[in-house]
Write the structure tokens for this entry.
Amino acid sequence: MNADRSSGPALAAGAATHDANRASHLLGAFHGRGLPPGWLLVAAALAACWLLLFDQLRSEWQVNPQYNFGWLVPLLSASLFQRRWGVRPAACPATGGGLMRGVSLLLLGGMLPLRILQEANPEWRLLYWVQGFDVLGLSLAVLHAIGGWRWVRFFAPPIVFMLIAIPWPMEVETGVIQGLMRFVAMLTTDAVGFLGIPALQRGNLIEVASGIVGIDEACSGVNSLQSALMVSLFLGEQHRFGWRGRLGLLSGSVGFVLLANTARTTFLVWAAATRGIETMERWHDTVGMCVMVGVLGMMFALAWALKPKAADRTTPRADRRFPPVAPIPRYIGVASLGWVLLVLAGTEAWYRLHEGALVPSPAWSFAWPTGDPEFKRLPIAEASLAMLRCTKTESASWMSAEGDQWRAAVLRWEPGRNSAQLAKGHRPDICFPAMGARLGEDYGTVTVDVGGLRLPLHHQMFESGSRSLHVFYCLWPDKVSPRSEGLLEDGSRGSRFRAAWAGNRHVGQTVLEVVVQGPESGAAAASLIHTLLPGWIKPG
């Protein structure tokens, strides 16, 4: 039984020898030494709520490389919970039970409108956080009912750890990405200059004699930063550090990421300047993997250094059997689980009821001006295609007779669960800052009439170095509600709520993006679009 007193893998190994005995205690309700049937149903309902959250997040985990680590978070959280379970404090009588029951009912009731909103807006990160805190609150309420506030405080850390798998709000993430890209580009420019390589920083771009090297999200360290933060939180809880130790791990993770990725970009810029751009591109992923391994190695080394060197601080092992729990009426457990199932069925019924009323949007295609000077097709990079997951892509650039430089792209997603999420993830306010441009002006919506087809475009101006880029963007769904006031999905809260109210989900999406460089003002750019776009759009 000595293994039961140890920590980490030894604790898990010791617990495995008692699986059969533990199962009998969980399923039995004799003498209060197991979990009564009513509580078993409540636990099943809570597990279903967590599974619904993970199901909602898995699209982000699949599509966004920054959150690939999300698949590990539930397993790590379960491991941390198991570790605390073996040394848990004694349960204490629950106080404030009426308040907690009221909060639980409120959280359960909010699941239905939340689920309906998520179906129409699967990429809306605010809803991820609302759902995450909803399930977290339900989990803490169950712990309170079983073990009182003492258990809530003791078991909160491994449960709160789950929230690290939720993507950051887009505004926060974009700000961090842009800040890191520019900061790393600045450090890299100084570093290669020290090595005797002339380099010029332009936003998140570094220009050397052989070409331009872009500091993208991977090079800036965002990917490794997200993973390092997760590892630092895990190690802090694994070793049960105090707040100073955990803060030290978090600070160390940021420092290690900046150091490692500056070294990475310096090497890549050196390779581009001395060996050529193609050589740099061949080494890009390999060097990135080395950086990730190096950062994780430094994190584990820092955790080992911060770990107290005092001899075995063994905490007496708690009784591994489930503590005595007052039974609850079985109908409460049945109602909890039934409500979760009703949320799923009700959401599906809502959308099926409304989908029959949706009407097809007018069809159109883009007639490329192949006769204009310098017209050329532009291939989209493989890395971008892997993230966009488009069904069809077209892109080209050309110059008008007036000397304006134009570029356009038409992206198509067939109907599917992630079609809206993927399409809405390709917006100028997301993609252009990632390329080093800065949003200068937002002119709102420009509506162009093309043979009776009213095409709404969101007009924004971005500054890239000394250039001003006027961007016109339209997200065109295959179907809309006949009550829709407009076809433009502008990402506003109002349009998101209207999409859910209309039962608009999983429909195919087409994105049109037109960029012009040359007009001196927003009004001049809008006038050009009104004049030229009707010649490029073919209704039908």
About this structure: The longest strand covers residues 438-450. Residues 35-167+336-355 form one domain. Residues 1-33, 310-314 have pLDDT under 50 and may be disordered. DSSP finds 19 helices and 14 strands in the chain.
